[in-house]
Amino acid sequence: MPVSKTIQDGVAVITFDHPPVNGFGFDVRRGVVEALNASIEDAAIKAIVITAGGTMFSGGADITEFNTPRAERAPSLHDVIAAIEASSKPVVMAINGTALGGGLEVAMAAHYRIAAKGALLGLPEVKIGILPGGGGTQRLPRAVGLEAAINMIVSGEPVPAEHLGGTRLLDEVVDGDVVAAAVTFAKRVVGNGELPLLRKLKVEHENAEGFLDFARNSVAAVAGPFPAPMKCLEAIEASFQKSFDDGMAVERAGFISLVTSTESKALRHAFFGERAASKIADVGKGASARLGGRVEGADQRRLDHREVRPDDGVRRGSDGRRRGAHRSRSERRRRRGRCRNRRRRVDHLLPGLLDAKTQAVTLVLKFRELVLFDEAQDFFDVVQIHRSQTVRRSRGALVSTSRP
């Protein structure tokens, strides 16, 4: 089972474990809700701690369920969040590692949050052309303030837990056993009266209207043709101007409009395509590589052309000939020329199109007329060139009113 429960001194510790990133798939969602409800009904349990197995808290939704019926089966991620918020007993989230997307949104539903030192917290949905759809745009501004929330959501970049200590997002940041710290904290807050929820807080910021005008101009300047950054900002703005429920309606409308957009489909195609390209179809999960040996479970004939002969270090095929020796010199020159021309075409279109803070694959739009998505090799060459140039750019705050 992906969800287990133990009891420590009257505190239920619910652990979900769904490698590799502890995604909130159907089995995890159902297990967490069932264990939570059972703990609430058990009179011997005074408080509840929720944590994850392994070294990562959660990467959010289970991407293996995307576009499948299991993704929509109840309980949904919204149902999990609602069940945690509705608990009559204190719920403490023990964030043992990186919490991204839906993982952070689930954590923000708890009454209290304890994070391990070094854990990264973020909402990276903008990188695939959408916005956080589980209340992230409404709870995060209430937890960390407008400026920090805009930078985290619009850029999609995670922030270390140490930088968020002292905000209403984290009650404690510990260097050690985060579960033990959460159990101790849970026993301490039992009977403290009304349980705190982020949804009940108000967004506070000095001269918020003026700051939002400044943020709109800053985000519009870097968003380019992508609608997601501005939609994120609209939802964050609703957290200040509207009630929590009305702000959730704005977030939901923005999410629905973005998820069907051409830009989001292109970015999601790039995301899933890169994952698929990193896998070898005929190598099983149990395959192991040995230095100087063969890859077990693979068709060796497909790897023969990669052999390195120890006698002279020359890359040769199974027939002993130098790799590429069957090609004429003129043909090899033509192949190199095509690669150079492709790089020149990318270099010509790239300048001025992308700001590193949006971290979006802007080239997908520019190359819609030049790159067909079924020509995977060309497409991933473009994405790789984009990323190599993006990484070299600075990673400063997207919106900041502080002086350098």
General description of the model:
The chain is of the alpha/beta class and 404 residues long. It has a domain at 3-262: 2-enoyl-CoA Hydratase, Chain A, domain 1. It has helices at residues 26-41, 77-85, 102-107, 136-144, 146-155, 161-164, 178-189, 208-223, 228-241, 244-259, 262-277, 300-303, 329-349, 363-366, 376-391; strands at 3-8, 11-16, 47-52, 91-95, 99-100, 112-116, 120-122, 159-160, 172-174. β1 (3-8) and β2 (11-16) form a beta hairpin. α1 (26-41) packs parallel to α2, α8 (208-223) packs antiparallel against α9 (228-241) and α11 (262-277) crosses α15 (376-391).
List keywords for this structure.
globular, 3-stranded mixed sheet, 9 strands, 404 residues, 9% strand, alpha/beta
Instruction: Classify the secondary structure makeup into a structural class.
Output: alpha/beta
Q: Span from first to last CA?
A: 51 Å
User: What composes the largest sheet?
Assistant: 6 strands, mixed
Our Rg estimate from Cα atoms comes to 25 Å
Task: Describe, in short, the structure shown.
The protein is built from 15 helices and 9 strands. With 404 residues, it is α/β, with parallel strands linked by helices.
